[in-house]
Amino acid sequence: MSTKSLAEIAKEMAGIDIAILSTHTETGEIANRPMSNNGDVDYDGTSYYFTYEKARTVSDIQRNPKVALGFSSEAGLFSKGIYVAVEGTAELIRDKAAFQQHWTSDLDKWFDKGVDTPGIVLIKVRANRATYWAGREEGDVEL
User: Fold this and answer.
1) Structural element, H or E, at residue 7
2) Rounded Cα distance, 87 and 89, in Å
3) pLDDT given at position 40
4) Please, what are the domains in the chain?
5) How far is CA 56 from CA 45, 51, 114, 131, in A?
6) Which of the given ranges, 4-8, 15-19, 121-125, has the highest pLDDT on average?
7) Mean pLDDT, range 94-102, rounded to an integer
8) What are the beta bridge partners of residue 18?
9) DSSP assignment of 92-125, as one string?
């Protein structure tokens, strides 16, 4: 098993917009859902996702902030693609200044009043551990 730096993995992850965010439900099951990182694709070990306060994702994180993220780039004829699994800790942010830092116009289709949309929350996930698979290579990511 090899080890790559976060910078090396970030280059290979560039352009991946969708991650699968996994949380623990109140019954202990694992819930998964696709989340867009809003074009904030320069991965530095921290990810940001917008959702609504009433989403089960929020109540799951309030109960247990330990989450997982799965990232995948397509493998093509001449590229091997990359898969990255992240274990991390989620934080719920309700500050409009933070919303503005991570806002893109693409979000307007989901949140019609922009950062002033009632009931939006920013989920911040800080990686504690990351593992990658690229073709036959696999290993840990130095965080």
Assistant:
1) helix 6-13
2) 7
3) 62
4) 2-142 (2.30.110.10)
5) 24, 10, 21, 27
6) 121-125
7) 95
8) 36
9) EE--HHHHHHH--GGGGGTSTTGGG-TTEEEEEE
DSSP helix/strand/coil, 81 = coil
CA 9/CA 83 separation, integer angstroms? 10
- Residue whose pair of structure tokens reads 């990255």 in the numeric block: 84
Q: What pLDDT digit, counting tens, does each position of 50-78 carry?
A: 999 999 999 999 999 999 999 998 766 55
Sign of the C-alpha dihedral computed for residues 79, 85, 89 and 92 taken in this order: positive
In this structure, what token pair is assigned to residue 46? 């921290």
Please report, as a single letter, which amino acid is at residue 90. Answer: A
